[in-house]
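re: ur question from earlier - yeah i can do the single chain one, its not a big deal. heres the input i used so u can compare w yours
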Amino acid sequence: METWLNLARSWERSRLNERPIYLRSLYLGLALVQTALHLYYDYDKMLESAEKEKMRSSSGEGPHDTTNPWEQLKSKLPSLLQEIGIIGVGFSIIGPIVYSFTLRGPAWQMSLFIARVFRWDVPYTQELSYIPPYHYMLIIRSLFSSVLLLLLWRTSNLAFSVYVAQEPLKRGQPLTQDSNDPNGSLINGLKAKKSVVKSSAYWELVIITRRYPERRVSIFRDIDRQGGAAWSQISSECLKTINGITTRIAEYGRSSQQQQAQVKPEDLQSLPRLAGPLREEPVFMNAPPPSSRREIVEAKVGSFAKSYGDKSVSSYGSPISPKAKAYLETARNKILTPEQQRAMTPANVQSQFNTYLTRMLRSRSGQPFRQTFARRIRSIAFGQPFSELVPIVNAVDALTTLATASLKEDSYGKVATDIPLIIRTFITTYETLERFAATLPPHWTDVEFSDSQRQTEDVRVMLCALKDGLRELVEAFGGFTAELGIEEKNIRVAKAIAGLS
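and the output i got, formated as tokens:
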């Protein structure tokens, strides 16, 4: 606590030291800036791309060692240090200015309150000095401490991203290889509820299907298992994951229809009757004077309600005379011009508000409040709060590879019965996603939307994966349509999607 205080002599009272207050305020601002940059540039994004795995293994080669994590860190370290240096130097220059005009007073009062909690000899009435304590050594110290703090944050995040994005391998073998039941462990991972475990399991599955033929053969031969054959359980989980796109799009369509549907009058339940039945005598005749006490009370209450709702009566109960109305109209014409009167109409006020709101959304400060088309279609089609794009792409690639490899490796013929279902699922998912991307209306906050933005990166990756899968399936099983029970319509649609003549 003494670092916050300038301890005085025995006959004097202690005083706050503003230098630590400035440094802590600087660190707080640095943390806010780093948080904004982290969210804006999405430093935590990790893409374990199935396309990269497919390109590496398309030649049929064996296992490939990925880049050493330390090599990845060293390759990214120069640009990282450059960014840290720019932010640190800029903050050390701008920090004193921002602190003097915004944070100095509140930071001093808060520090004074905390000091009074631990030290009784700190007076409540200490005032700030006229000149901030900006010594050149303090600026140099703030520069080095800011750079070191940024280096800690950025390198920790980079190391975590690099190591977490490593392939699920152990000594060059899949993680489930050391298990007593490798296929069972893999199936449990595919059925996991946690997104991290499930994503890792699908990543391991696509690596197994591409690089490890012996594990692939073991999946085809594992038919005596609780819950069904290994292939049946794996294909069922993969198809469920792929069908999740169609299911989520259908749920969104149903919810949109329910929100837009209007309540029909016949659907409303009638309320209990609070008054007596309507009069049957002629309504233009004068009503008889009230005779009973209840009728007298009803008549007085009715006359009061009618007078209260009469617009020609002011709040004091007296009618507004035509002369008063004329005075009001004259005053309005003298104070406001015709253009101002037209601008104050409800329609013009609403239009002006929409103009200012649109201008704010187009600015940089309005970017966090926009719901872009890419973000919207990602949350609807691929799930939220975390996108399931990578597991879905891996599921498509794994099913395709297993199905094409079954022609030579599936001695029991279990895969052949599921080929029509796989092709139908791929076609339905492709058509549903393509149609949804072409018809989904943009959000009202997406002020910079254009039709060219409908083919987002996520949609493109998903459609390319389905197209490649259909191409490989048609090339492998196109000559066995009658034997496998594949409808000619599905084959024609699959060929059209895959671009095959």
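Residues 17 and 313 are 68 Å apart (CA to CA). not sure if urs matches, ping me
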